[in-house]
Each structure stands twice: as structure tokens, then as C-alpha cells.
Design goal:
Structural class: alpha+beta
Largest sheet: 5 strands, antiparallel
Mean pLDDT: 91
CATH topology: HIT family, subunit A
Number of helices: 2
CATH architecture: 2-Layer Sandwich
Helix content: 25-40%
Distance between the termini: 46 Å
Strand order of the largest sheet: 1-2-3-5-4
Low-confidence stretches: none
């Protein structure tokens, strides 16, 4: 089976740089949910080289600006699953950029913090 991220049509890109491209998530959990995907096929974050890691940061900030302008997002969740046991289902590096809004339900981490304090 071929990798779904290796065959993405470039016309779907929201943004890109030398090492990554950004696309809308096909199954969004919030308005504007975006994936940042490595152009080089690598399994997860820990297989990125230093140049790629730096480039990821740059594109992440660019995507944040785009989502703030397009959707008036107030906050963001950034998520990477690294490995099957961590919930990774597509073994090609991608990071979720999930815009958050005032009326959003609390995230699982927020609920955990609230239950502890």
C-alpha cells in the first residue's frame, strides 16, 4: 500500500517550505485543523534531521498566522504521535495544528489538569 502523504496533490497545499507542506486535515476536529507533513518520507519526528526540525518550526509559525487570519483562532494544540503505541496510524511524519476557539470543549489534557487541581 502506498503512503497517502507521498501522493498528495500540490494544489491542496495551504503553505510550504523546503522541507514541509501544510494541508487541511481530511477529518478535522476543529475548523481550520491543518497537517504539516514532511516532504521527505520519514516515520516520525525523531527521524527529522536538524535542518528539517528548524524548518518545521518556521512553517508551524506560518500556518498559525494563516489560521489566525482565516479563522480567528484564539489558541492552538500542536500534536505529533510518534509510534504505533502513541496512536500513530500513518507512518509518515505529520504534525497536527488544531485551532481552538472560545466555545470549544476542553481538551483531554485540560480535563486531566482540572481533575488534579
Amino acid at each position: 500500500m502506498s503512503c497517502p502523504f507521498c501522493i498528495i496533490d500540490k494544489s491542496l497545499y495551504i503553505a510550504e517550505n523546503a522541507h514541509f507542506f501544510a494541508i487541511s486535515d481530511r477529518f478535522p476536529v476543529a475548523k481550520g485543523h491543518t497537517l504539516i507533513v514532511s516532504k521527505r518520507h520519514c516515520k516520525d519526528y525523531f527521524e527529522l534531521n536538524e535542518n528539517e526540525a528548524s524548518s518545521l518550526n518556521t512553517l508551524c509559525r506560518d500556518v498559525r498566522q494563516i489560521l489566525m487570519q482565516q479563522h480567528q483562532a484564539l489558541a492552538f494544540n500542536l500534536a505529533m504521535n510518534c509510534g504505533k503505541e502513541a496512536g500513530q496510524s500513518v507512518f509518515h511524519f505529520h504534525m497536527h495544528v488544531i485551532p481552538r476557539y472560545e466555545k470549544d470543549k476542553p481538551s483531554p489534557l485540560q480535563r486531566l489538569r482540572e481533575s488534579l487541581f
